[in-house]
Amino acid sequence: MRKCFTIILLLCVTLASYAQQESLVPFADNEQEADLQYCYAIDEADEEVMSRATQYDNEISNISDASDEPSKLWAILVADTYDRSIGDDDKLDNQMLNRELKAIANCLGIEISITNILANDAYNKRNLANAISRINPGPNDIVFFCFNGHGFRWNNQKDMYPNICMGSGNNNYVSTTDIYNAIKEKGARLSIVFTDCCNSNSGSYRPRYTENTLYSRANVRASKKRIRSLFLESKGVLLATAAKPGEYSWSFSSSGSAFTQSFIAQLRREVSNDRTDDTSWQRLIDNTIEAARKKTLVCKNSQHGMRYLKMSK
After folding, report:
1. pLDDT tens for residues 96-125?
2. Angle in degrees, 0-180, between the axes of helices 281-295 and 258-270, rounded to the nearest 10
3. Which of 58, 87, 148, 289 is the most exposed place for a label (fewest CB within 10 A)?
C-alpha cells in the first residue's frame, strides 16, 4: 500500500533541471512471435469488471491519421524507489515496465525513448514537467506514462483522480488529470497514462501487505501481429488509476504493486499467440482493474480502480 501524505498548497508544474533519459533504437527480427520473459501472477480475471469511466468526455479529434508514418514509443516512468515503506516495490514495478516496453519496441522494430524519474535527486515535479515538455511525438507515435508512488486526494476534491506525490515537502504534488491533459495535448496517435497510487484522503495510512501468491517465471509466446494491433493500429487515449476515491492502492512485499503487476500480466495475456480473438485495450485495462481487485481482497479494503478510454482502430 501507499502512504498518503498531508500536503498544503497546489503549485502548478514548472520546468527545470533534468530527468534521467535513455534512448535506443532496437529492431525486430523476421519472426512472427516474440518472447516476453518476465514474472507474472498466475490468476484469472474474466469476471465482470467493476471499473467505470468518469467525467472525461473530450474527443480525440486532435489525433491525426498517419498510419504510414514511422512510429516511436515515448515513455516516462516515475517511481518513488527510495521511499522507506514502498520503495522496493516501486523499484520492481519500474524495472519490469522498462523491460516490458523495450521488449515490445524490439519486437515491433520501432525506436524507443524512456525517461526514468527515480528518487532521490531526480524525483521532483520540476523534472516531471521537464520530461513531459521534452517529448515531441509525431502523429503516429505512442506516449506511455506510469507513476508508482504515493498519492492522495483532498477531502473536498471534485476530481475523481488522485494527486501524485513528488517529494516530502509542501506543494510537491501534481494532479493525475493535469498530467493526462498535458500528454493528450501532445497529439500522439496513442496516449496511455497510468497512476498507481492511493486515492484516499490526505493523512490516511495503511501498511503494505505481505503475501504468498504463486508466481511463475516463464516464456510468453507473444504474437507480433497482436502486439502490432495494440500498439501500432490503435488510436486514442487511455487514462487509468489504481484506486477509486477513498481507496488505497496496495503493494506487496514480494511482488510489487497490485495494479502495475496486473497490467503486465494482462498485457501478456492479450498478446499471447494462443489467442484468436481481436485485441482490445478496453478488455486489457478492464481485466487489469479486475485482477488488481481480486488480488487485494486479502487486504480487507480492496481497490477497484478507474479508467477512461476512447479508442479506435
Report:
1. 999 999 999 999 999 999 999 998 788 999
2. 140
3. 58
Question: What residues does 73 pair with on adjacent strands?
Answer: 112, 142
* C-alpha span between 122 and 149 (Å, rounded): 14
Which residues are 61's β-sheet partners? Answer: none
C-alpha cell at 185: 495535448
Average per-residue pLDDT in the chain? 78
C-alpha 261/C-alpha 275 separation (Å) is 21
- Retrieve residue 227's grid coordinates: 502486439
CA dihedral 13→16→22→27, nearest 10 degrees, is: 60
| Residue 170 Cα distances to 16, 73, 118, 212, angstroms | 18, 33, 19, 37
Q: Tell me the backbone φ, ψ of residue 265, rounded to 5 degrees.
A: -65, -45
CA 301 – CA 247 distance, rounded (Å): 8
Nearest to 195 by CA among 308, 300, 281: 308
Q: What is the pLDDT of residues 60-108, one digit of tens each?
A: 333 444 456 789 999 999 999 998 888 999 999 999 999 999 999 999 9
